[in-house]
Amino acid sequence: MSYPRIGLALGGGGARGMSHIPVLEAFDELGLKPHAISGTSIGAIFGAAYASGRTGREIREIALELFSDRNSVLGRLWKLRPKRLSELFNGSNVVFDPLKVLDVFVAEHLPDNFEDLAIPLRVLATDFYGCREVDIDAGPLLPAIAASIAIPAVFRPVKRKDQILIDGGVVNPLPFDRLPTNCDVIVAVDVVGSPVPRSERQLPTSLDAIFGTSQILMQTITQEKLKQNQPHVLLRPEDDNIRVLDFLKTKQILDRAEPLRQKAVEQIGKLLSTAEKSPIPSA
């Protein structure tokens, strides 16, 4: 049987991006592979891992291994500390180089270049001074992902050719519109979430305010996009108390996102079943 070509868009959302994993497992359960993948920020990481040929289960095991032990995570972060005091006082509050973060946490699990992937992948970043979206689908893989995850106030911007790039979620937090036009079915996973209050504080911290503002802006962008066009399947984890950098809650996030796997199986399966009887309308 010939299945429709499925495009998979994985959105940005920090630690809530762990919710992408049950959706990847749903594809495996259905015996499907996407025709193409687009990813923003954390979605770029999981998109690259899945496009490399790893299964959803393998990606789950890697994520749990990386973030199950607090001391291990702190040890990896210690490797990323500035080597000179001058790096702490250079007029910037940004501490981490996103490419070094990827080297320490996930580089061993990913190939070197886009051309080495089993599934075509498009990664989104933002041209800071050009104020526009940048789509990357060829060349070195890790630098492209580093640009896509470069959240302001956490990561340094990434220089690529003549551009300074930051987090792709600034311009396109759910990149279903950047999948190839020959995809018959579009599946999009939105994990942006909302600002989370801290019970011990009346006002958000400065960092919470920055992240929360970004979430509000990303939600607004996505809502406007959905008014113009919609994917065939739109999946979102339930609202929760997960913050952008809560990666040490990976197991909790995965447990709470488990219903998303079954929802994906049901909705994608139903769509494919319908496709056997009649053409699928355009997204």
Structure overview:
The protein has 283 residues and is α/β, with parallel strands linked by helices. The protein has nine helices and eight strands. The chain has helices at 20-30, 42-51, 56-67, 70-79, 98-105, 141-148, 206-228, 250-256, 258-275, and strands spanning 6-10, 36-40, 121-127, 132-136, 158-160, 163-167, 185-189, 233-235. Strands 1, 2, 3, 4, 5, 6, 7 and 8 form an eight-stranded mixed β-sheet that branches. Strand 7 (185-189), helix 7 and strand 8 form a beta-alpha-beta unit. The longest helix has 23 residues, at 206-228. It is globular. The two termini are 23 Å apart.
> Total strand count, please?
8
Strand content: 5-15%
Instruction: Give the class from helix and strand content and strand pairing.
Output: alpha/beta
Determine the fraction of residues in helical runs and give it as a percent range.
Answer: 25-40%
Q: What is the helix tally?
A: 9
Average pLDDT:
91
Order of helices and strands: EHEHHHHEEHEEEHEHH
Give me the secondary-structure topology.
Elements: E1 6-10, H1 20-30, E2 36-40, H2 42-51, H3 56-67, H4 70-79, H5 98-105, E3 121-127, E4 132-136, H6 141-148, E5 158-160, E6 163-167, E7 185-189, H7 206-228, E8 233-235, H8 250-256, H9 258-275
Parallel strand pairs: 1-2, 1-7, 2-3, 7-8
Antiparallel strand pairs: 3-4, 3-6, 5-6
Helix pairs in contact: 1-3, 1-9, 5-6
Quick overview of this protein structure:
Helix 7 links the parallel strand 7 and strand 8.
Write a concise keyword list for the protein shown above.
single chain, 9 helices, 283 residues
